[in-house]
């Protein structure tokens, strides 16, 4: 079977004015991070993927000299083409330039995302094999307010249905090229290529994005990018451990890992008594030296009566973000004779990941019994143990 050809369009045609510092005239895509220009890092990320057949930069008409100064050399790197007046127009120019090559698939990526990981690129490529398009997304963790006038709140969006889009966005070349040509004929500004695909009624699937796949837009983003590059020299990894236990009480279901599981009893507690999320929350708080769950949500405070434990977990995750940290991985072990838990573990991982705004691959949930020993063996309650690995800026 013939190997599919995959072309990449790196969109670098903007002026980058929002990222300028003190009137710096160098466009953001040509400014260095760790001694290497942004766009050079972006191009290199795709050339590092063996499945990629061609990489086509789309640049501003006035930036020929800037791009030539990068001195990039690779047989798969095509000569840059000039973009248009908008991102949408620039992508169309790139698609036109690729037409003679007739690639099977095309990935469209913002040059201002220089840290796109190989695994993410490969995940998008794999997803478009069975779909018209694919894009990486991250779950939205903040509460989103709607305000038509930018002043008064008019409503609150359901963030469970909201996802932040990243690039690269991958498509069948012919289908997205056709959609772009038709979109150019109407008076509408599309925010990204996936929106054009949606408008053209193409089938677009989401794949998990990556928190480090940041887009450099404002001056402070360069500082964050430098921190990402410096990695271990500026960051340190901390480990937290959590333990919780709840006894059974009359009821018909238990909450574990944010999932309601039918059972002949419930867990006794002030909140929903989700022993797994309580242990996990304590583990995260412990990793960043923020005490335990009782410090932040005292059981004496009636506002937390029957509260969902995802509230506690989300708060712990927000404290990590406030420290400019990130959650590396989480591991939860639930010890119970009943109910049977293993079959619910994937759903628990998904709830935990969505609550914290991380990928499910960073979460592990395991279950075991106590071999009929002790109060657990007598089915009087459930124990959960958790560990959290958190990366935060180093404090000397």
TrEMBL record:
Region of interest: 2-C-methyl-D-erythritol 4-phosphate cytidylyltransferase: 1-237
Keyword Nucleotidyltransferase: yes
Binding site residues for 4-CDP-2-C-methyl-D-erythritol 2-phosphate: 244-246, 270-271, 292-294, 368-371, 375, 378
UniProt-annotated stretches for the region 2-C-methyl-D-erythritol 2,4-cyclodiphosphate synthase: 238-396
Pfam name, any one: YgbB
CDD domains in alphabetical order: CDP-ME_synthetase, MECDP_synthase
Involved pathway(s): Isoprenoid biosynthesis; isopentenyl diphosphate biosynthesis via DXP pathway; isopentenyl diphosphate from 1-deoxy-D-xylulose 5-phosphate: step 4/6; Isoprenoid biosynthesis; isopentenyl diphosphate biosynthesis via DXP pathway; isopentenyl diphosphate from 1-deoxy-D-xylulose 5-phosphate: step 2/6
Required co-factors: a divalent metal cation
Record: residues binding a divalent metal cation: 244, 246, 278
Ranges where the 2-C-methyl-D-erythritol 2,4-cyclodiphosphate synthase domain occurs: 238-390
Keyword Lipoprotein (UniProt): no
Alphabetic keyword roster: Isoprene biosynthesis, Lyase, Metal-binding, Multifunctional enzyme, Nucleotidyltransferase, Transferase
Site features described as Positions MEP for the nucleophilic attack, chain residue numbers: 159, 215
EC number: 2.7.7.60, 4.6.1.12
Catalytic reactions on record: 2-C-methyl-D-erythritol 4-phosphate + CTP + H(+) = 4-CDP-2-C-methyl-D-erythritol + diphosphate; 4-CDP-2-C-methyl-D-erythritol 2-phosphate = 2-C-methyl-D-erythritol 2,4-cyclic diphosphate + CMP
Molecular function as annotated in GO: 2-C-methyl-D-erythritol 2,4-cyclodiphosphate synthase activity; 2-C-methyl-D-erythritol 4-phosphate cytidylyltransferase activity
Positions marked as site (Transition state stabilizer): 18, 28, 270, 369
The protein's role, per its UniProt record: Bifunctional enzyme that catalyzes the formation of 4-diphosphocytidyl-2-C-methyl-D-erythritol from CTP and 2-C-methyl-D-erythritol 4-phosphate (MEP) (IspD), and catalyzes the conversion of 4-diphosphocytidyl-2-C-methyl-D-erythritol 2-phosphate (CDP-ME2P) to 2-C-methyl-D-erythritol 2,4-cyclodiphosphate (ME-CPP) with a corresponding release of cytidine 5-monophosphate (CMP) (IspF).
Protein family per UniProt: Belongs to the IspF family. In the C-terminal section; belongs to the IspF family.
Protein name (Swiss-Prot/TrEMBL): Bifunctional enzyme IspD/IspF
Organism: Devosia honganensis
């Amino acid at each position: 079977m013939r190997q599919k050809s995959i072309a990449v369009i790196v969109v670098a045609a903007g002026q980058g004015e929002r990222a300028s510092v003190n009137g710096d005239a160098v466009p953001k895509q040509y400014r260095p991070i760790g001694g290497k220009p942004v766009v050079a890092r972006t191009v290199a990320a795709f050339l590092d993927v063996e499945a990629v057949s061609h990489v086509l930069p789309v640049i501003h008409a006035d930036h020929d000299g800037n791009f030539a100064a990068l001195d990039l050399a690779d047989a798969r790197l095509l000569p840059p083409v000039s973009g248009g007046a908008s991102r949408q127009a620039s992508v169309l120019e790139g698609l036109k330039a690729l037409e003679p090559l007739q690639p099977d698939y095309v990935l469209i990526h913002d040059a201002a995302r220089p840290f796109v990981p190989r695994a993410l690129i490969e995940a998008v490529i794999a997803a478009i094999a069975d779909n018209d398009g694919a894009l990486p997304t991250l779950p939205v963790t903040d509460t989103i307010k709607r305000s038509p006038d930018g002043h008064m709140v008019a409503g609150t969006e359901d963030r469970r249905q909201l996802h932040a889009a990243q690039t690269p966005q991958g498509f069948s070349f012919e289908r997205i090229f056709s959609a772009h040509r038709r979109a150019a004929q109407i008076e509408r500004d599309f925010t990204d290529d996936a929106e054009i695909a949606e408008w053209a009624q193409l089938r677009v699937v989401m794949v998990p994005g990556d928190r480090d796949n940041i887009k450099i837009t404002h001056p402070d983003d360069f500082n964050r990018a430098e921190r990402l590059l410096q990695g271990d020299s500026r960051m340190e990894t901390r480990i937290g451990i959590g333990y919780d236990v709840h006894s059974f009480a009359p009821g018909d279901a238990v909450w574990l890992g944010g999932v309601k599981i039918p059972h002949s009893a419930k867990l006794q507690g002030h909140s929903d008594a989700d022993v797994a999320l309580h242990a996990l929350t304590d583990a995260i708080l412990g990793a960043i030296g923020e005490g335990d769950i009782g410090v932040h949500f005292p059981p004496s405070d009636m506002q937390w009566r029957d509260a969902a434990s995802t509230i506690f977990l989300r708060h712990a995750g927000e404290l990590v973000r406030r420290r400019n940290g990130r959650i590396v991985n989480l591991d939860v072990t639930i010890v119970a004779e009943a109910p049977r838990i293993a079959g619910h573990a994937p759903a628990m991982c998904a709830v935990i990941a969505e609550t914290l705004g991380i990928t499910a691959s960073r979460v592990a949930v395991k279950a075991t019994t106590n071999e009929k020993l002790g109060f657990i063996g007598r089915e009087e309650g459930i124990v959960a143990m958790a560990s959290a690995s958190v990366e935060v800026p180093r404090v000397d």
